[in-house]
Amino acid sequence: MTVDQLRALVEAAAADLVERTDRPHPVTVVLPLEGATKVISLDGFPDDDEARHDALSVLAAREMVPANASCFGFISEATGPGGEDLLVAVYGARQRGGHVTAALVDDDGLGDFLPAEPLEPTAMPFLRPLQHAADTATPPSEGGTGGLPITSG
């Protein structure tokens, strides 16, 4: 899987989320695994960054580490700088760091995603457990099971 394929997968999951759920859309984690993609809705996701970090630490320990997940996506609603409603998508992979993109969202659906940008190290610090779990996944060529090879492209 390339990073571009990961982005496309996370954006497709975001579009599916908007089609299937009512607003506010639940915070969702996307885990592309060897056999299938796992999509986990986090109803009641906390507002506090420390509590968010704790919740994602538990998710990473329960879902990513046992599956040797080498990449992830995170989808959440947010308010843009001009007050517009956005759906934010962050995706990251083993040793690649995170990238962030966003699209306008309203009752009519989801707009086009903006070009992705690298996620600044100080932005969304609560996502660190997901990136850490991806970074520690064993590549399949090194005897690990379940992890997807992440390639440039």
Give a concise summary.
The chain has helices at residues 3-20, 49-67, 128-135; strands at 27-32, 37-42, 71-79, 85-93, 97-106, 109-110, 117-118.
Q: What would your notes on this structure say?
A:
This protein is α+β, with helices and mostly antiparallel strands and 153 residues long. The protein has one domain. Helix content is 29%, strand content 29%. The chain contains 3 helices and 7 strands, in the order H-E-E-H-E-E-E-E-E-H. Strands 1, 2, 3, 4, 5, 6 and 7 form a 7-stranded antiparallel β-sheet that branches. It is globular and about 45 Å long. The mean pLDDT is 91.
Question: Could you outline the blueprint of secondary structure elements for this entry?
Answer:
Elements: H1 3-20, E1 27-32, E2 37-42, H2 49-67, E3 71-79, E4 85-93, E5 97-106, E6 109-110, E7 117-118, H3 128-135
Antiparallel strand pairs: 1-2, 1-3, 3-4, 4-5, 5-6, 5-7
Helix pairs in contact: 2-3
Give the low-confidence spans: none
Q: State the domain count.
A: 1
Cα distance, first to last residue?
9 Å
Question: What is the H/E string?
Answer: HEEHEEEEEH
Helix content: 25-40%
Helical segment count? 3
Query: On the 0-100 scale, what is the average pLDDT?
Result: 91
User: How many β-strands, per DSSP?
Assistant: 7
The biggest sheet, with number of strands, parallel, antiparallel or mixed sense and barrel status, is:
7 strands, antiparallel
Q: What's the shape?
A: globular
